[in-house]
Amino acid sequence: MKFSEQWLREWVSPQLGAQGLADQITMAGLEVDAVEPVAAAFDGVVVAEVIDKRQHPDADKLNVCLVDDGSGDPVQVVCGAPNVAVGQKVPFARVGAVLPEDFKIKKAKLRGVESRGMICSASELGLAEEISEGILVLPGDAPAGKAFRAWMGLDDNTIEVDLTPNRGDCLSLKGLAREVGVLNRLAVTAPAIEPVAPVHDETFPVRVEDAERCPRYIGRLIKGVDVNADTPLWMVERLRRSGVRSIDPVVDITNYVMLELGQPLHAFDRANLQGAVVVRLAREGERLVLLDGQEITLNASTLVIADERGPLAIAGVMGGEHSGVGPATRDIFLESAFFSPLAVAGQARSYGLHTDASHRFERGVDPQLTRDAVERATALLLEVTGGEPGPLVEVASAAHLPGERQVTLRAARLEQALCKALPGDEVVDILDRLGMKVGSTDEGWQVQVPSWRFDIAIEEDLIEEVARIHGYNRLPARRPAARLALRPDHEARTPLSRLRRQMVARGYQEAVTYSFVAPELQQALLPDAVSPRLANPISSDLSVMRASLFPGLVRAMEYNLNRQQTRIRLFETGLVFHGDLDDLQQTPMLGALACGSRDPEGWAGARDKVDFFDLKGDLESLIAMGGEPEAWRFEPGGHPALHPGQSARILYRGEQVGWIGALHPGVRAGLGLKVEAFLFEVRQDALVRGRLPSFEPLSRFPEVRRDLAFLLDECRPVQSLLDCVRRQAGQWLQELSLFDVYQGKGVPEGAKSVALGLTWQHPSRTLNDEEINQLVDAIVAESHQHLGAELRG
């Protein structure tokens, strides 16, 4: 919201400079983004009258003019503007004037004719962003010789306020003036709005079919308007200083009233209306060409203004091209309506639009403002364009208009929240100046909320109002009490930060992706996943909450591969979501992805590609940090996103906590990926769990090692053999390692040779061969009986 400081001071003028005013507004919760001058610096420009004009003797496109600049002697100036004419009042830069960008006016000769000054256009004075086609023509009552800058009031500032969505009441000069008046305890002088007496009794019928979305609709037929009249310069300037471009007098006046009062208005060309104006929901498939030329297909949930032929406008958003005011318009139908915020919210965005009207209606427009706005606009139209107004036509549903709201404010609760007791008279004064009606109760006050404050509904809202008007900087600063006792630390837990550092140490980079993913990508990786779909997504490819970290990591890999990054190591921590909103489970996970070469490029590094066991080793390094590696197991399993022959479910203490494997070839083909990638995903609560290390005295006696090679069915997991060995190896087994797996010459077809290293050590004596041989025999017998394993000779 931009506004002119001078315009605001016509309503209320506190004894503050521009920056002081901006600071005060900001401290009241209406943040000021910028304070900028309304015009660039220039000097030596006065109002002048063109008293003579003749063709330049040597140039077809130049004119030689005489201007009266108030000095007493006519001044000759050469002007190339096509619209210069005798009798015009114009801005004239005298010799010695300095225009914006330090452009100095000097005496000159143009094609042999002396020129002493320059008649200026709006762009040359910095009053228009685009280059002007002609000079700036001033009203006929502009006083010749008057300093142009002073006469135009250009020593002014534009103040831009960034309003929060709950303060729609301040999207107007009226609302901002009301706030400034409250803050400075000053009366606000609003322009008088008197009902306009109708000149004729002709009306245009109005029918509201959806009173819940449009509780009030007012229209007026104004006949004989001159749409080609010039918008007054003062209005054009106020619009410009508010960031609005002048178009034609009818549109300018509706925009002006919207900026002044906060009520959006719209004018229809009466000649383009047929039957009656109808406020209704759109019918499926109806189309509308908007004022910006865009043609849209309306959906059935959109509230429209229509006539008997079809839609004329999207209610509260934008009018249609064919029913709008044009140069040939003679009669207009002026509308002013109150639309429910819920009826307009999201409609503009659903069509890719955002307008000043939708911005206001979405936040709430005062339902009591509708009549005043149409009366104010009518008076301005009659003044500028002429015309004959008819009577107002109003359709209202009291049952659907916002009712009076009563909110109780307790003195004790106010003191508790502000840490300060305010005098009752001050509280009542603040609320009264905010437009509220205040009554006393035993505990505090009963407050009636004004119609323009949609954001006040509960006691805390009133406390906020009292606090900001009283002044946040006047409230006591108190530090919250805090207990300084040390909280117990779970030493057995591995902090997530340590897991992150471990992944970085192993060559991974942390990725941070959206919690939302493309539905088709999640469907490809997790066809059976159920997770919430967003009703209002950031974009169509971020419309489903992720059920796994895999989609985000795969998309990040794809992004990097498309940018010639061939070796990728990524990991991510975050929540995944399972189930519907009514039964949503949010699980913290840690996932990783690797593809490309095993080692970074270098003369000493091999060019082997990363494989399943590289990624498994990285995961096992995280597992080892918990000090409980034996609690983890990897078992073959099927996952729709992973290769059926290179995937495993991850178990912790017998409970499934994740998956690891190669990306499924079918998924890779569907995504157009030519490189093999490996992924894992594990629940964070399992990874951070562990056990405290405990000290055991080191044995002074020698270790005994035996190496055993078993012939095992090639389909039999090695883990089953390891489990069998541990069961029979006894309590003094210190280490069991797998150091070789072999298939080939000397090994029967369909079998594999698995070589294990076993190390025993007793804490208090030397183990003898007889004890070790008994253990080995038990291991061999158990392995043969349960697994069919044979000791390889």
Automatic annotation (TrEMBL):
Q: Which EC numbers does the record give?
A: 6.1.1.20
Cofactor note, please?
A: Binds 2 magnesium ions per tetramer.
Q: Which amino acids does the record list as binding Mg(2+)? A: D455, D461, E464, E465
Which residues does the UniProt record annotate as the domain FDX-ACB?
699-792
Query: What are its GO biological-process terms?
Result: phenylalanyl-tRNA aminoacylation
Q: Which UniProt keywords apply?
A: Aminoacyl-tRNA synthetase, ATP-binding, Cytoplasm, Ligase, Magnesium, Metal-binding, Nucleotide-binding, Protein biosynthesis, RNA-binding, tRNA-binding
- Ranges where the TRNA-binding domain occurs: 39-149
Cell compartment(s), UniProt: Cytoplasm
Q: Which GO terms describe its cellular component?
A: phenylalanine-tRNA ligase complex
Primary subcellular site in the record, as a coarse category = cytoplasm
A Gene Ontology molecular function term of the record: phenylalanine-tRNA ligase activity
What cofactor is this protein dependent on? Mg(2+)
Looking up PROSITE patterns in the UniProt record yields: B5, FDX_ACB, TRBD
The chemistry this enzyme catalyses reads: tRNA(Phe) + L-phenylalanine + ATP = L-phenylalanyl-tRNA(Phe) + AMP + diphosphate + H(+)
Q: Which Pfam family, just one, is annotated for this protein? A: FDX-ACB
**Cited InterPro entries:** aa-tRNA-synth_II/BPL/LPL, B3/B4_tRNA-bd, DNA-bd_dom_put_sf, Fdx_antiC-bd, Fdx_antiC-bd_sf, NA-bd_OB-fold, Phe-tRNA-ligase_IIc_bsu, Phe-tRNA-ligase_IIc_bsu_bact
Q: Which residues form the B5 domain?
A: 402-477
What family does the Swiss-Prot or TrEMBL record give for this protein? Belongs to the phenylalanyl-tRNA synthetase beta subunit family. Type 1 subfamily.
Family matches, as NCBIfam families: pheT_bact, YtpR
- State how it assembles: Tetramer of two alpha and two beta subunits.
Protein known as: Phenylalanine--tRNA ligase beta subunit
